[in-house]
Amino acid sequence: MLAVHFGAGNIGRGFIGSLLSDAGYQVCFVDVNAEIVDLLNEKQEYRVVLAAENSEETTVRNVKAINSLQNPEEVLEAIAAADLVTTAVGPNILGIISELIANGLKKRTERRNQPLNIIACENMIGGSSFLKEKVYEKLSDAEKKQFDQCFAFPNAAVDRIVPNQTNEDKLMVSVEPFYEWVVDRSKIIGEVPTIEGVTFVEDLTPFIERKLFTVNTGHAIAAYAGYQAGLETIKDAMEDPDVLRLVRATLTETGAVLVKKYNFDSTEHMNYVNKIVSRFTNPHINDEIPRVARGPIRKLGPNDRLISPAKQYYQYLEGQPENLAKGIAAALRYDYPEDQEAITLQSKVKEMGYEETICKVCGLQEGDPLVELIIRELN
Ligand SMILES: NC(=O)c1ccc[n+]([C@@H]2O[C@H](COP(=O)([O-])OP(=O)(O)OC[C@H]3O[C@@H](n4cnc5c(N)ncnc54)[C@H](O)[C@@H]3O)[C@@H](O)[C@H]2O)c1
Ligand SMILES: O=P(O)(O)OC[C@@H](O)[C@@H](O)[C@H](O)[C@H](O)CO
C-alpha cells in the first residue's frame, strides 16, 4: 500500500507519516525542502521521540520522498499509484499543491479506475473541502463528473503538538505523547482505510470545532498574550499568571459555546480543557511562541480559532466574549518582524487603523458589537 503525503514537516513526519507507516503503508513524502527530501531518500527511515519523562523512541521505516519542485512528474506518478493521499502543508499552501494533485488524479483516471481518498490534515475547518475546490477549479465539467465518481476529499481534525525541531539529526522529530486524528467517514469513497489511531466519525463538525476552538484558541491566546508579555515559549507563557488566567477564561468562553451548541457534557469538556492546559505546560517540549503565533492574518480569519467562537458566542449565549476579545486584541498587536503576515497586518493597521483592519481581516461589519468590544480592548 502506498500513501502519498504532502509536507514532510513537523506534523507530517511526527504524526501522519508515523501512523501511516505503522498501518503498513509505504509513505512517499512530497516536499519542497531539498535537504529533508534527500535525507529521507538516503536513510529511508527516521526517528520519532516522545517528549515525555521516558523519551520513548520509535523508528518510522519504509519511507521515501519526492522534491516536487525538481520532479513534478514523479509526484503525478505517485498519485496515480497511491492508495491514500494526505497533506500537512499549511492552509495557505493547499492552493499551491492543488495543481499537482489535479494533474496526478487526471493521470490516474487514464490508468485505472480505483477510488482514492485525499485527506487534508490542516488546522482549519473544511480543509479537504477547500482542497477539493482548488483541485476542481482546474477541471472541465466532464472531468469534474469523472472525479466525483472516483475521488473523495473527507475532512479531518488532527491534534498533536509538534514544535519546530532543532535536533542534530535533521529527520528526527520530537512529539508530545498525546494524539488524535478524526476523519469524516461519511465522505470516504471505497473501503474505509484501517489506520490504527484514526477515528472515523459520521459528523466531523463537533470534533473539528472542539479541537480548533479549544487547543488552537488556547494556544493562540497563550502565544499572543505571551508575546505581548515579552516571553519566549508557550510553557513560559503558561507560567505567567496573567496569561494563564486569560487562556483559562477564554477556554471557559469557547467551552460554553461548544457545550451549548453540541450539548457536550460540561464536566467532560472541562476535563478536556484541563488536559490541554497540561499539554501546553509539558516540560519536555520547547515550543517557541512564533511557531504558535505564526500567520496572524490566517488566525484572525472569520472561520478560524479566534473570530469564529467569538461570533458564535453572540449566537448561543448571553453577554459578550470579553476574554476572546482580549486575545484578539493581542493578536492584532502581533508584530514579530520575522513573520510575513505579522508585517502585513501591522502595515494594514498603520494604513487603515484598527477598525477597518478588523473588518477586512476578520470579515466583520462596522458597528458589529464584536468589533466594538475588540476596539475597546485596543484602547
Ligand atoms: N505542528 C503541529 O503541532 C501541528 C499539529 C496539528 C496540525 N498541524 C497543521 O499541519 C500543517 C503543517 O504544520 P507543520 O507544523 O507540520 O508545519 P511545517 O512547516 O513543519 O511543515 C510544513 C511542510 O510543508 C512543506 N511545504 C511547503 N510548501 C510546500 C509545497 N508547495 N509542496 C509540498 N510541501 C510543501 C514545507 O517544506 C514543510 O516541510 C498546518 O496546517 C498545521 O496547522 C500542525
Ligand atoms: O499550526 P497553526 O499555525 O494553525 O497553529 C499553531 C499551533 O496551535 C498548532 O500547530 C498546534 O500545535 C496543533 O494544532 C496541536 O494539535
Automatic annotation (TrEMBL):
It comes from the Bacteria. Residues 2-196 form the Mannitol dehydrogenase N-terminal domain. NAD(+) binds at A3, V4, H5, F6, G7, A8, G9, N10, I11, G12, R13, G14. Its EC number is 1.1.1.17. Residues 203-345 form the Mannitol dehydrogenase C-terminal domain. GO terms for molecular function: mannitol-1-phosphate 5-dehydrogenase activity. The keyword NAD applies. It is an enzyme of class 1 (oxidoreductase). It catalyses: D-mannitol 1-phosphate + NAD(+) = beta-D-fructose 6-phosphate + NADH + H(+). Keywords: NAD, Oxidoreductase. Belongs to the mannitol dehydrogenase family. This is Mannitol-1-phosphate 5-dehydrogenase.
